[in-house]
Amino acid sequence: xxxxxxxxxxxxxxxxxxxxxxxxxxxxxxxxxxxxxxxxxxxxxxxxxxxxxxxxxxxxxxxxxxxxxxxxxxxxxxxxxxxxxxxxxxxxxxxxxxxxxxxxxxxxxxxxxxxxxxxxxxxxxxxxxxxxxxxxxxxxxxxxxxxxxxxxxxxxxxxxxxxxxxxxxxxxxxxxxxxxxxxxxxxxxxxxxxxxxxxxxxxxxxxxxxxxxxxxxxxxxxxxxxxxxxxxxxxxxxxxxxxxxxxxxxxxxxxxxxxxxxxxxxxxxxxxxxxxxxxxxxxxxxxxxxxxxxxxxxxxxxxxxxxxxxxxxxxxxxxxxxxxxxxxxxxxxxxxxxxxxxxxxxxxxxxxxxxxxxxxxxxxxxxxxxxxxxxxxxxxxxxxxxxxxxxxxxxxxxxxxxxxxxxxxxxxxxxxxxxxxxxxxxxxxxxxxxxxxxxxxxxxx
Length: 445
Prior knowledge:
This protein is α/β, with parallel strands linked by helices. It has 13 helices and 16 strands. The protein has helices spanning 30-37, 56-65, 76-79, 85-88, 93-96, 110-119, 158-169, 185-188, 194-213, 238-241, 243-253, 309-320, 340-356, and strands spanning 67-71, 124-130, 172-177, 220-223, 258-259, 270-273, 287-292, 324-330, 364-365, 375-380, 383-388, 394-397, 404-409, 417-420, 423-427, 438-444. The strands form three sheets. Strands 5-4-3-2-1-8-7-6 form an eight-stranded parallel beta sheet, sandwiched between helices. The protein has a five-stranded antiparallel beta sheet with strand order 9-10-11-16-13, with helices on one face. Strands 12-15-14 form a three-stranded antiparallel beta sheet, with no helix packed on it.
């Protein structure tokens, strides 16, 4: 994942319009200001290629899923200094490569990972098949200098084990891939060292093909790091990567895979990265918030700074109330073990979702626009769910063209309400506040 200090130059949220695309929409006004307020969107302004985009029906499962697990894992887990260790600490490529001779995790079990995700109420997973350091977690003939887990100490194809475990657990399979590779001087000087840069690009195309061709149905392809020389944006580097050609190849192998925009193509959904707050109106395009459970780094770090349960639930409802999904990251250690503290916190999230998941999964935002730090709403069939971030004596909602027949707290107690042409008034004096987010359900006729 991109290091925060490198990504302080954020992109404005301007989606180019495509008349032939189901999802390409122009976000403007309050929506634009809102997205800029909490960090903008990674991968915006990519090349428009409507023929590559999925239809609304093809995207439905992803928009229904709402919550997934991100996993950053690789050689960097050995040093425990985060996924940018090689670059930040200026480790020469040949020196860093020696870590591959130590990388032989004895306690790696992808089935345990999948179980943790499922217990947390997550519906899909995304694993870093290869990060910016260039080390691939699978049997990769395209890997430059055989820098992969199959041809080094572990002699294992972790992607095979991971994809099998996801499917066994009933979780959608996501693969993260970074086309950039710090081992290539041509990454930093793509025009001056064009032949070296071309080798990196060749490796990228070859490895994406391997991942899309050899591991059965892949549900999500999550690119990261399309920008060159750590400058500009993914879209700025499209001249080099030729993302339309790259993703045409992807579609030949995986016609239904949901693709993010970080290759320089606009993608099927937009990405918002980091722990910045979510505020503003509903975002009328598929999007995803990705952030860290351990706020110290994406890759394993013994320094623990975990989000609280309340912070996670608040971020989740703020995201879902605005039409997004949330991808929450964990960083297993060098042995492939997710820290117990992470698992304990995720189990708490799962317990909340077992009680309130009906207000998350399969919903769509609205019908009421969110009010920052107060409430947001989602809807599903004849039910409207209100997520209350703070509680007053009464909740005043805008007018609704449907008749409300009942109002209660999801924990069970009925609430008094009145509805007329001016709006809806709900009396909250009888509510039992939830310590995280209190949730109401309105049933309409």
